[in-house]
Amino acid sequence: MKVAFATDDGxxxxxxxxxxxxxxxxxxxxxxxxxxxxxxxxxxxxxxxAGKIDSRLDSVGDxxxxxxxxxxxxxxxxxxxRKIMPVKVAFGSPIEEQLKRLVEMLQGxxxxxxxxxxxxxxxxxxxxxxxxxx
Length: 134
What we know:
Blueprint: E1 2-7, E2 12-13, E3 22-29, E4 32-40, H1 49-60, E5 65-68, H2 73-81, E6 85-88, E7 93-94, H3 95-107, H4 112-126
Parallel strand pairs: 1-5, 5-6
Antiparallel strand pairs: 1-3, 2-7, 3-4
């Protein structure tokens, strides 16, 4: 699964979802985690709140989890509607530490919230009911 981290330096979770200048995106499996890319957001002068949320949603739309320091209620609602689970962590949490904990959870018995997310991801990959191809 792909996991995004709101960051301004690529090594720590230290950004609010709506103000994050970039997202560090990792592919996480039971075997470990590897960096996919650092997705930088271009600054748009005078961008309204909805525009900021939209640009960030577009940036992390392929992710299953997003680790953030903080997220507003309306942004959280829009993130979860896109089937992305926001995970709040302490300011400055090292991304490597969060990845290590996530991999350990995947290797053991994942907590209820993670098990639910994994089930939903499997269902999305398994049968693309109602989806159109072509």
